[in-house]
């Protein structure tokens, strides 16, 4: 049993998003989070390259299950350059999702820690995110505390 | 009296941040919002240029009172490129502040509307921000609704 669990753990590789991840179910995974229509290969590549231009200022990470070749978790962080806090930087975590078939393996925690570590290594004084009250205990386990409220204005 | 009020209104110009705004009290204004140490001219210029590289993807707006030559309000918005929402974009409003001597003139509303309009014109499907419960009625007047909660992790 222990051996089998290790085998599962060993097959879950965390790394940055690659352009070939579209074929590995990346868009289908995002669909578990919010509205996400099918995206053409061309449009995916275009958006991938737009984000890649920001280099380490916009990092999307994924966990691939190398046994199935499927992306089973993802999240992103971008680095905002400010004038406040002595020209400080803030990390913004967005779009964290774990595949429904891969829950209970702490993959969400691995994603959030990877993104927070990235923000820290980029010199951010803080990293922030918005979530539902329901997900608050999860983020508290990741070392976050509730601060303010999120306001939104939709254009569509 | 009416003439005098118009004169005040006419002297409040809204525009994008310029590198010369440091001399016009931009940093002192930010200090009314949060921790903001004095910034050397060199460091200010460096950060200004780093942000300018993002072009319209990171817009800082200010209101200058041209009578006094002082910056009396500011706010920023940056455009996050996503894969969700059919490769959509989200605007993030940050660091909105109005000088304590210039409150009650709807300058905050002008700033927020300018930033939301910018996000809309950039093709964002939404614009979001975090604020205190105390500031919620102000943002509701600007057309925002409460959605989620903000979580934060500080590194310093």
Automatic annotation (TrEMBL), chains A, B:
Pathway(s) this gene product operates in, as recorded in its UniProt entry: Nucleotide-sugar biosynthesis; UDP-N-acetyl-alpha-D-glucosamine biosynthesis; N-acetyl-alpha-D-glucosamine 1-phosphate from alpha-D-glucosamine 6-phosphate (route I): step 1/2
CDD domains with a match to the protein in the record: NAT_SF
Organism annotation: Solanum pinnatisectum (tansyleaf nightshade)
Keywords: Acyltransferase, Endoplasmic reticulum, Membrane, Transferase
Protein known as: Glucosamine 6-phosphate N-acetyltransferase
Membrane is among the record's keywords: yes
Membrane topology: Peripheral membrane protein
Pfam families, sorted: Acetyltransf_1 (PF00583)
Family: Belongs to the acetyltransferase family. GNA1 subfamily.
The reaction(s) this protein catalyses: D-glucosamine 6-phosphate + acetyl-CoA = N-acetyl-D-glucosamine 6-phosphate + CoA + H(+)
Subunit structure: Homodimer.
GO CC annotations, alphabetized: endoplasmic reticulum membrane
GO function terms (MF aspect): glucosamine 6-phosphate N-acetyltransferase activity
GO-annotated biological processes: N-acetylglucosamine metabolic process; UDP-N-acetylglucosamine biosynthetic process
N-acetyltransferase domain: residues covered: 12-156
Compartments where located: Endoplasmic reticulum membrane
Enzyme Commission identifier(s): 2.3.1.4
